[in-house]
Amino acid sequence: PGVQREDAESDWSADSWSDYGSRDKPGTTLGRTVPDGNVLFPDIFHTNHLLFYERFRAYQDYILADCKASEVKRFIAEYLEKVLEPSGWQAIWRTDVFEVLVGVVDVNFPALKAVVQLSEPFLCESQDSSFTLECMQELLELKEHQILLQELWVVYDESGEFDQTALAIEHVRFFYQCIWRTWDEEEEDEFDYFVRCVEPRLRLHYDILEHRVPSGLVADYQNLLSQCEELYEKFLNVRNSISSNDSDSEAENVSMVEGLKLYDKVEHLKQKLKLIENPLLRYVFGYQKYGSLQAKGLRPSGAKVIHVVPWTMTANLLHLLARDKLCPESCEELEIQFHRDPLTAVNACYEGDTVIICPGHYFVDGVFSIADSIELEGYGLPDDVVIEKQGKGDNFFDCTGANIKISNLKLVQHDAVEGILNVHHGKTTLENCVLQCETTGITVRTSAELLMKNSDLYGAKGAGVEIYPGSACTLLRNGIHHCKEGILVKNFLDEDYEAPKITMVNNIIHNNEGYGVVLVRPAMPSEMKDASAQGTKELTMLRLRKSNSRIILMMWLLYMTVGDVLFPALGNTQPTQAGDETACAESSRQEQPGCVTDELELYKQAGTSEQTENSEIANVLGATSAKRSQVHKKRLSKLGFTEADDNLMSQEMFVSVEGNQFKWNGKGSFGIFFF
């Protein structure tokens, strides 16, 4: 990037930055940038640093408003007519192969193009020397001296006269580079284009810039986008060849079949893109891919090693280690290695090795990728053996080994995109650990197994534990608290996957923002039938959900209804008024004693016979969930959704549920979301 020179402080207040304001202020409010390269081009306006809310407000309030997809170009042209200076300014015309200084003499607003001529003196920089003055003049004549506005970078001017011109062109350039898709114009006009496409894509762009999206998911999105653009171009070529040929030949029939196949592929890719662009669906569906971890297997010698990581080594500590850990019954062939940090020790492990971490506070900048069956053990209490992540990154612990055990550690996560621990394959046992999270907590992927016992997990901005279909998760005597959701069970991705197998015994799930447990699963036929009985409107909506527009309708429903019920932090982007916060707080204070009393009564009833069958305990917990959800149930049932189910805990996924306590969770013990 070029060097920035700020001649005046940028004033990005709510009134001064807008595309209609500040013309009466003396001097520019924008910074300047020195262009890269060997040619001494004049400085240009620095406009590519705009914040999310600045672009959001420009597109929503001034440029696109409530236009439809087919009206986008016309709305942009009308906006430019109001703010763009039609002539009298210079710009650098940039392409992939050259840059040249031009002067703008007019603007063709309907075509979103500027009429330009070469500036004097002639300034041009290219990858080769073929772009001479004569060559550029011929090129401009071929283009009728008209250039797309997004290819122009406005030359800096201190007067402030061209501030709005520079900002307007920046908005157009960003829109066509980051927001607009070639297939958008063919989308249905029933929906507001800004709400349907611009806002989710704009949010995704800034989520990526601020490292809120896993790097693997970003790569997937870019690949999907490239594939979709390539296939859509092929589809257009096939469609144009058919429309230009009126004959009913065999070749045309083949082209029609090919066109239909391409259309189906494009629609499939577009739906995948929409799932990633929508922040709520991106959160619910999650990201399943991970880096391919290769297990080392056994050492060539067959020996097993104990790796010791001391913060500081004293004679007394060495004596205790030798007594407790380093001298098993058969220690003649035992090899011991010492390491400076836990990550180095884990990376040096082979199948069957053990890592012993001595008391201390270790700062690690990297990812623990564990592909072999090893043991990672803290020597002492969890609060005495702390591993804290430094630096930004997607993951902290990635586990794919057949049998991994982690014990007596405190893990502290910062600046991560994914959860604190991901179990992708094999079995991971987590015992007597403390996990201080920042994003999601533990994720148990399909075909993986987690055994978590006597541990404490808190602070996750997502779910404390995410459980995927086809996985097995056993939770024994744990605390899961102060997370957005306690446990999120995903049972919807594919009919081929089995329901997750979950055992929950004597856990305390409390003080979470949402529910203690949230299930996401497809609606059963009986539930669909009950919903359709509500009337013609509900029946129509259910049919729509099965049609090609299923994803579109689902996105709207999630945003408008479920977003603020099950996932308030993701579904609601509007600021809360102070009065509303006070009212909510007072309502919560008034309601809590009664709720707590009811819960304690239920716990007493359940505690009188801990040997009661799982189904009886499930009925008690399910009744609690149903009671808590009555406020929202009527509203959601009109849309074909049911938030709580009386038979919730009797689902086949829950293998064993005994002695769990659910206290002071913001929305109740259990909730269910039908997909």
TrEMBL record:
Residues 1-28 are annotated as: Disordered. Gene3D superfamilies: Single-stranded right-handed beta-helix, Pectin lyase-like. GO terms for cellular component: midbody; spindle. It is found in: Cytoplasm, Cytoskeleton, Spindle; Midbody. The keyword Cytoplasm applies. It holds the Pfam family Beta_helix. One of its GO terms (biological process) is fibroblast growth factor receptor signaling pathway. Residues 405-519 form the Right handed beta helix domain. SUPFAM superfamilies: Pectin lyase-like. InterPro entries: Beta_helix, PbH1, Pectin_lyas_fold, Pectin_lyase_fold/virulence, SHCBP-like_N, SHCBP1-like. Keywords: Acetylation, Cytoplasm, Cytoskeleton, Phosphoprotein, Repeat. Residues 54-282 form the SHC SH2 domain. Interacts directly with isoform p52shc of SHC1 via its SH2 domain. Interacts with TRIM71; leading to enhanced SHCBP1 protein stability. Interacts with both members of the centralspindlin complex, KIF23 and RACGAP1. May play a role in signaling pathways governing cellular proliferation, cell growth and differentiation. May be a component of a novel signaling pathway downstream of Shc. Acts as a positive regulator of FGF signaling in neural progenitor cells. This is SHC SH2 domain-binding protein 1.
